[in-house]
Amino acid sequence: MPKINLLPWRSELRAKRKKDFMVAIVGAVVVGGLLSFAGKLTVQGWTAAQNGRNTILRTKITELDRQIEEINALDAQKSRLLARMEIIDRLQRSRPEAVHLVDELVDTLPEGVYLTEVQQRDQRIELKGSAQSSTRVSALMRNVDASAWLNRPQLEVVETRTDGPTRDANFTVYAQQIRTDDETGEILQ
Predict the structure, then answer these.
(1) What average pLDDT score do residues 55-80 get?
(2) Digit-coded pLDDT (tens) for 22-51
(3) What backbone phi and psi angles, to 5 degrees, belong to 172?
(4) CA nearest 180: which of 86, 87, 97, 90?
(5) Are 53 and 46 in contact (CB under 8 A)?
(6) What are the CA-CA distances from residue 109 to residues 62, 97, 116, 120 (Å)?
(7) Residues 84, 146 within the same domain
(8) DSSP characters over 28-73
(9) Domain limits for position 120
(10) I need a labelling partner for 125 at 20 to 30 A (CA). Which of 61, 74, 141, 184 fits?
């Protein structure tokens, strides 16, 4: 009888399957490596694109911050200029008040009373001077109280001094200046 050996056929088939399996594994590893490399390149591309957008945003933000600083500086300058304009406007409106004040001081000063110093802080006016007697200081205070531009006289001190045959009373009187309305120019009470 002829001898048929089936073993080499099976071992060849086993070797072929083993070889095919190894080729499939190597192919899968290569395809997996290529997919991994392609994924890495894609993610790097996305990252580079996002970094580019972030750089553009940072540049724009820096530019906007600079513009905001310029706007804030201009606003501060505008506020300073408006404050100056308001002060100048207030001074312009109060110019007649100074004239009225000096006129009123002349009108309220009785005979025998001499002013040596006049100071004004806001609306408060300090009058220092000398008078021939303390009754003349009282007359000055009555005149200030009856004045249209001055009111609320307050006597701080009266010192009577005798200098030879003359007798003087040195005094300090405070008065309040009456303001005028900024818009109408009328006297405010």
Answers:
(1) 96
(2) 999 999 999 999 999 999 999 999 999 999
(3) -135, 120
(4) 97
(5) no
(6) 68, 18, 12, 17
(7) no
(8) HHHHHHHHHHHHHHHHHHHHHHHHHHHHHHHHHHHHHHHHHHHHHH
(9) 109-177
(10) 184
For the record, the structure tokens of 16 come out as 């072929």
Structure tokens at 55: 């750089």
Task: State the total domains in the chain.
Answer: 2
What is the value of pTM for the model shown?
0.47
Domain final residue, candidates 94, 129, 159 = 94
> Taking the mean position of all CA atoms in its chain, how far away is CA 106?
45
- Separation of alpha carbons 189 and 74, rounded Å: 40
- Which tokens belong to 186? 């009328």
Q: How many CB atoms lie within 10 A of CB 143?
A: 18
Q: What is the largest CA-CA distance in the chain?
A: 178
Token pair belonging to 181: 């309305």
- Cα angle vertex 128, ends 87, 96, to 5°? 30
- Nearest in space to 150 (alpha carbons), one of 117, 185, 102, 115: 102
